[in-house]
Design goal:
352 residues, alpha/beta, Isopropylmalate Dehydrogenase, 10-stranded mixed beta sheet, two-stranded antiparallel ribbon, 11 helices, 20% strand, binds 1,4-dihydronicotinamide adenine dinucleotide, binds magnesium ion, IsoCit/isopropylmalate_DH_CS, EC 1.1.1.83
Length: 352
């Protein structure tokens, strides 16, 4: 029996409430398919630790994770700790240190979930946002000058490298070849006159190398409108770090709730562990009440199964999710129901 070594980082708030259900699902589906997991849980890596010790994780944190096959993360963020501290103290070092340059965010409208968007019907909306995950607009380059004076200023540089953009685009075009053969690139080369024309040039270059994919580009503002007006037209959407972040949250809302959306931070070369996490954050407004929707975390675990070479097991999980949504009225409050996280998870395990 293969044992996959999994690092669990629950983090803060509802992160600690959605990871145990994901683990139960993994164990159940593993038993059925004849593989297992050995978990190492890093319960302490959180904002509480930051408040106590001044760091979200220990100094050798990445080294502790390095030999794992994958990382499953809940969410980080806690009122009183600035969001850039929790993000740059844990998530971003893992994404960058482990070369997880692809952030994959699939969007699917399930039967049984009412999308706030009229045209977003089950089956019709099924696309994936491929977000650049280690460079772009989220850079450390820049600074602040003249703090406290009237001429105070801040400068933030975006970094786009040929190597970094090309490898992301190749991943996205390859994915489009395996899916519906269509790709949309998010740009803003009318307003951002250096990095975005460079991005567009590289898209055209990689598009020429993938002749079976029909591709187009859209300015990100117009694209945002089309996500709402006509979400069924998309297959693979490729975007820079910032644009992909915004577009994928919007897309998750189109799918019905940010609580159901999964994400993968992939190191495609597999020289480092990849990380799987729900799109949502720590939701301090509902944390501690046992009502968080575990589907985002569970779908992320399904993406992890896929990555670990168990596509049939991953399909079992997504089939069970589709079945509970289409065949029962059981819903957590974010989807208009009254079920607790535990009640919902128990039913899902039964269907599995
Ligand atoms: P959020 O995703 O935590 O919450 C937004 C809204 O969606 C809230 O009303 C929340 O109750 C609801 N929600 C989110 N996930 C849910 C779930 N699974 N079930 C039911 N309802 C759910 O985003 P917000 O409020 O912007 O951020 C809260 C904290 O989380 C901040 O500290 C932020 O920095 C952090 N955050 C962390 C992320 C991560 O760890 N990857 C991602 C996004 C935010
Ligand atoms: Mg986001």
């Amino acid at each position: 029996m293969t044992d996959h070594r999994i690092a669990l980082i629950p983090g803060d708030g509802i992160g600690t409430e959605v990871l145990p259900p994901a683990r139960q699902v993994l164990d159940a589906v593993g038993r059925r398919h004849g593989f297992g997991f050995s978990y190492t849980s890093y319960d302490d890596w959180s904002c509480e630790r930051y408040l106590r010790e001044g760091a979200m994780m220990p100094e050798d944190g990445l080294d502790q994770l390095r030999d794992k096959d994958a990382i499953l993360l809940g969410a980080v963020g806690y009122p009183g700790v600035p969001d850039h501290v929790s993000l740059w103290g844990l998530l971003i070092p893992i994404r960058r240190g482990f070369r997880q340059y692809v952030n994959l965010r699939p969007i699917r409208v399930f039967e049984g979930i009412d999308s706030p968007v009229r045209g977003a019907t089950a089956g019709a909306v099924d696309f994936v946002v491929v977000r650049e995950n280690v460079e772009g607009e989220y850079s450390e380059i820049g600074g602040r000058l003249n703090r406290g004076f009237p001429e105070e200023m801040a400068v933030q540089e975006a970094v786009f490298t040929r190597a970094g953009v090309t490898r992301l685009l190749d991943y996205a075009f390859d994915l489009a070849e395996r899916r519906g053969g269509r790709l949309t690139s998010a740009t803003k080369s009318n307003g951002i006159v250096h990095t975005m024309p460079f991005w567009d040039e590289l898209v055209a270059e990689r598009g020429a190398a993938h002749p079976r994919v029909v591709w187009e580009q859209e300015h990100v503002d117009a694209l945002a409108a089309k996500f709402v007006l006509d979400p069924a037209r998309f297959d693979v959407v490729v975007a820079s770090n910032l644009f992909g972040d915004i577009l994928s949250d919007l897309a998750a809302a189109v799918a019905g709730s940010v609580g159901v959306a999964p994400a993968a931070n992939l190191n495609p070369e597999r020289t480092h562990p990849s990380m799987f996490e729900p799109v949502h954050g720590s939701a301090p407004d509902i944390a501690g009440r046992g009502i968080a929707n575990p589907l985002g975390a569970i779908s992320s675990a399904a993406m992890m199964l896929d990555h670990l070479g168990h596509p049939e097991a991953a399909r079992d999980v997504t089939d069970a999710i589709a079945a509970i949504l289409a065949g029962t009225d059981l819903r957590t409050p974010d989807l208009g129901g009254t079920a607790s996280t535990a009640e919902f998870t128990d039913k899902l395990l039964e269907l599995l």
